[in-house]
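Figure 2 data, in text form.
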Amino acid sequence: MSDILLEQRLWIACAIAREAGSLQKRRFLDRDKVAFQLKGPQDYLTATDGEVEKLVRGRLLNAFPGDTVLGEEDGGQVSDRTWVVDPIDGTSNFARGIPQFCVAIAFVHHGKAAIGVIYQPMSDELFAAASGMGATLNGEPIQVSKATRLDQSLIEVGRASRQPQAGYLAMLDKVMSTGMAIRGGGSGALAVANVASGRVEACYETHMYAWDCLAGLVMVEEAGGRVNDFLRGNGLVKGNPILAAAPGIAEALAAIVDEPLKPIS
């Protein structure tokens, strides 16, 4: 795909993300109407999730009728041109009145993540990236942290309740023994975007789905960071561990969590 066509797709995805985020914000501020249910332990779902995904899916397929869409709530199909959508990443925050959530849109072209867009409506922050074009926050270029020491670094760590607790606790022990500071914000997509923008040095989770992290992984690479090969195997559909880090600490952290990084191209 030419750079011009890729850039056009990026612009359209950004516009759709802003529209979806505006809908998120309106629903969030109307607190009396935000009700949620649980799909599983700590796995929240609101009516707004489905409403936003329907909007994003419709806009994407109208703009690109030959593409397919894979969404968190309604599933979809995988093809050589697939959009991957999380209508509300950070639904637990959204449901509980915590203003830290986003819409995440990624584009996978012939098996490679080529576009990533994340919009946080409450702070009006639009993260965007496309292969070979760099990464931006509200139109300004961003870069990963220049940190080179683990004991001077901050990592975002999340835990999927579907994963064994013992392995998660063992990983935390290893990471904390390096002196790294740990935080968790309740949104995997924003955690990866934080790595891309240099706000934190790394993020790691034992399992994420593509809609949670793929957009951010494009940004991290375009911002000069290192990531694991998330799409290996059937990662697009089944998910995988996720690791993203500033280059100065990436190799050391990858060894600690036992998650290999993609080779530097």
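Caption note: Residues 40-44 have pLDDT under 50 and may be disordered.
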